[in-house]
Specification:
By secondary structure, the protein is mainly β. It contains ten helices and 47 strands.
């Protein structure tokens, strides 16, 4: 029996929690009281139990033409330390249409936290912005906001339709009117405005497409007086200071540079409460806390402050703050990992009152990645030897895994590089919604970029849990198990009488019959929520599965619901206007058309034809591999028996119909003996086979007759093919769904099977190899025109050694111009990094 997911996770959590608590114990102040200890313990218990993961895809580019291939390298890491050694071994990669409808899905096998893949874009795709997303089954237990999401542009405008428009630009805004609709939100630092206490207020202005826009504005009080003016700094975000007066209300008048404006009220100031200000200094984080107690004298109130980043507690302390006083904490930066830090203030009743995100370590240097071609300029079809060197900020060589894209700089703009593995793992993956141009905050850190990054922290907060639930030891519902191989999971519900609700069927026995090259029977037991989990499927070929619930006392009309492998929902991505008929689009489409023609003629994979929306009218009979024998001694077909479905079980159905087969017992507990066999062990029960899988009489008794196609009996010499197992004869049962030629449309009972479900187990995707002509092979067939251009070369598996070194070779094409080298990846100890370079190819 396969251990339940709950049991397996409990063992994992116990081991991780022991390690985490030991580590955190050195960071909690010795004088910490019970609540502070509980706070730290529960925080670390959450991260140990939920084991958050992050996924990232390095794409060869983010602009494509229909019919092209998206080449990708997947990285899956632990959210806390970014090491690529997660417990998940299966990654789901989806291609979603502009309307967020699934177009393609691939299952990739993760090895050491990485996998390679490719998505062949059908040449029938409509033009638009598609979404590529990646997630593990475990990640589905949290919000889809934690999935990796990347928008790509797919062009499919016929060249003859756009050729006259070269040099012109026609803009179409998908799903929105051309007139931008201005929206502005205001976010007091820490959460609330409090009367009499000065606060920093962050703001964000976006248009109808969800993109930031430059604005200016003024704040007026209830008497119409100007209080403060403000102006956005980057991507529609900015800040200003405000000290609300008791009893006053405030409103903002905001103007966009294009002329649009609006008037909107600010959040109402509370008469009492706390404010929290977080400032990053050179070597420390400074936190200031103030309290407004209202009218009359009030004693100082005990407070608790905790800060954590990437699952690790950086600070936990307590103090007091009274009216007119300020509590301050100075926390060394050395306690923080680089990333988004969460600061939370609790009052004397242990209630969370203020929260604030702050990015710590924005100026931390990136990995030192050097890409050095052996030449600066190359002739067409010339060999390039590229040397890669990776070191940390101190110059220490670093071993790791990387991927490389070589793109035509004219066809693939440099702006596509804004999202990198570093900006995603450290920043984007920790925030709600979409972050515009995340690379802006890391490419060239200055005072302005650091201020813009802090504005982002003020306006785009996020967290993985709710403190109230966490402190009550409610860590959330995690129905989707960790997958270390292909798996099948689901839930068994106990169907009740009409009008009553379904309830989870706990401790129910679930059987899985697998048909194919190696027929197999597996069993497990549902947990308290009625959930079950089967794993260990590692084949490259698809398998047909039948999942059944074994009848038992108290289980009424069981319903089997298999988990869907496609996650629901996705991030709320902004709608970016499409540029139709631009010179860039025409140039790209022409280049792509030439390259696709070449690859179809010369690439080993190019001869594959991708079919879309094909209506198959014929039907081919597939060989049934469930039998080891060629002929049975007796066959009973349910279709030949009138009212066959009225029988309780299969044994009752064959009772009295086959000579020499004796069936006895009650309908709920029947046994069978084949006369003429002699058992030296005293057991005369025949061998039972269901769809080629050995089973026992109890399971045979549980199979509804309407699910059975036929029953075949083997006696004596006919059963010898099963060896000693068939000494008492063989009764082979063949289900309708086990038949590879089964057609549910012709089965009147297929619509509502009770206690069973069928499933076609998907296979791991067999990744293709990026095509480049085999110039290194003498006598090889070469294309007359090598038109590789937008993506000249793609290398997804680059491994640097202990000296941080790797060497890659490839060949230039016949297309001249400047090519940009983009390398991304992770070191073995979890440091993300990017590196860039250029080379020039002279034209023919």
């Amino acid at each position: 029996m396969i251990p339940s997911f709950t049991q397996r996770r409990a063992g994992l959590v116990a081991g991780l929690l022991a390690v985490v608590l030991l580590f955190v114990g050195f960071q909690v102040a010795p004088q910490a009281d019970g609540f502070l200890q509980q706070l730290v313990r529960q925080l670390n218990r959450f991260y140990a139990a939920t084991f958050p993961e992050k996924s990232y895809l390095h794409l060869d580019k983010t602009v494509y033409a229909a019919g092209e291939t998206v080449w990708l390298k997947a990285y899956v890491v632990q959210a806390g330390n970014h090491r690529p050694d997660t417990l998940s071994r299966v990654l789901y990669v989806d291609l979603l249409s502009p309307d967020q409808v699934l177009v393609r899905q691939q299952l990739l096998r993760l090895r050491n936290g990485t996998a390679t893949g490719d998505i062949l874009l059908p040449d029938t795709l409509v033009q638009g912005r598609y979404t590529v997303r990646a997630y593990t089954n475990w990640m589905r237990n949290t919000s889809p906001d934690y999935f990796y999401n990347q928008q790509i542009m797919v062009w499919h405008t016929p060249l003859d339709a756009v050729a006259p428009a070269i040099g012109e630009r026609r803009t179409r805004v998908s799903g929105k009117t051309a007139a931008a609709r201005l929206t502005v939100q205001f976010f007091p630092e820490g959460g609330n405005l409090v009367s009499g206490l000065e606060s920093t207020i962050g703001f964000k202005a976006v248009d109808a497409n969800g993109q930031g826009v430059d604005v200016t504005g003024t704040i007026k009080d209830g008497r119409g007086r100007d209080v403060v003016a403000f102006k956005s700094q980057h991507a529609g975000m900015g800040r200003f200071q405000l000290k609300p007066e008791p009893g006053q209300t405030y409103q903002a008048t905001v103007r966009q540079s294009g002329g649009a404006f609006l008037t909107t009220p600010l959040p109402t100031a509370l008469p009492t409460g706390f404010t929290m200000k977080v400032m990053e200094l050179k070597d420390q984080i400074q936190v200031y806390i103030q309290r407004q107690a209202g009218t009359g004298a009030a004693a100082a109130e005990a407070i608790t402050l905790v800060a954590h980043v990437r699952g690790q507690v950086a600070y936990a302390g307590q103090g007091q703050v009274g009216a007119g006083t300020t509590f301050s904490a100075r926390i060394p930066k050395s306690r923080f990992q680089t990333g988004v830090a969460h600061f939370t203030l609790f009052d004397s009743q242990n209630q969370a009152r203020c929260e604030r995100l702050a990015f710590v370590g924005a100026t931390t240097p990136d990995l030192r990645i050097t890409l050095q071609p052996d030449k600066a300029r190359y002739a067409p079809r010339e060999k390039v030897t590229l040397r890669v060197a990776v070191a940390d900020a101190e110059g220490k060589p670093m071993a790791g895994q990387f991927s490389l894209a070589v793109n035509n700089a004219q066809l693939v703009p440099a702006s596509m590089e804004q999202r990198t593995i570093r900006s995603y793992l450290l920043l984007t993956s920790e925030l709600r919604g979409t972050v515009e141009e995340p690379g802006y905050y890391f490419t060239n850190p200055t005072y302005d970029t650091n201020l813009a990054l802090d504005n982002l922290m003020l306006t785009q907060g996020w967290r993985r849990f709710v403190w109230k639930e966490l402190l009550a030891n409610r860590l959330g519902n995690y129905p989707y198990p960790l997958e270390q191989s292909l798996s099948v999971s689901g839930q068994v519900m106990n169907g009740q009488l009409l009008g009553s609700k379904e309830t989870p069927a706990a401790n129910a026995t679930v059987l899985l019959l697998r048909f194919g090259g190696e027929n197999q029977l597996m069993t497990t037991t549902t947990d308290s929520a009625g959930r079950f989990f089967f794993s260990g499927f590692a084949e490259q070929d698809t398998s047909r599965l039948l999942v059944r619930v074994q009848p038992q006392k108290g289980l009424r009309n069981p319903i089997v619901r298999l988990d869907q492998k496609v996650a629901e929902g996705t991030k709320d991505l902004p709608t970016i206007p499409l540029e139709v008929g631009s010179a860039e689009e025409v140039a790209y489409l022409r280049s792509s058309k030439r390259q696709q023609v070449m690859e179809r003629q010369y690439s080993p994979d190019g001869k594959r034809i991708l079919l879309q929306n094909v209506d198959v009218r014929g039907r081919r009979e597939v060989a049934d591999g469930r039998r080891l024998y060629s002929r049975a001694d007796a066959v009973v077909r349910t279709a030949d028996i009138p009212a066959a479905n009225s029988y309780t079980n299969i044994l009752q159905l064959i009772q009295g119909r086959v000579a020499g087969v004796q069936v006895t017992g009650s309908p709920t507990n029947m046994s069978v003996v084949i006369r003429g066999v002699n058992s030296f062990s005293g057991n005369n029960s025949p061998l039972f086979i269901i769809d080629g899988v050995q089973t026992d009489a109890s399971i045979v008794n549980s199979i509804p007759v309407q699910d059975v196609e036929s029953v075949e009996i083997l006696k004596g010499a006919s059963a010898a093919i099963y060896g000693s197992r068939g000494g008492n004869g063989v009764i082979a049962i063949f289900t309708k769904r086990g038949n590879p030629n089964y057609d549910p449309a012709n089965d009147p009972y297929a619509a509502s099977p009770i206690g069973m479900a069928t499933y076609a187990l998907p296979r791991y995707y067999p990744t293709r190899e990026f095509y480049q002509p085999p110039y290194q092979k003498p006598g090889a067939q070469l294309p007359p025109d090598d038109t590789r251009s937008a993506t000249l070369f793609w290398a997804p598996q680059i491994v640097t050694d202990a000296n941080g070194q790797a060497t890659i070779t490839f060949y230039t094409s016949d297309i001249g111009g400047e090519y940009r080298l983009s390398l991304e990846g992770l070191t073995n100890n979890g440091l993300p990094g990017t590196g860039y370079g250029t080379l020039v190819v002279t034209g023919k």
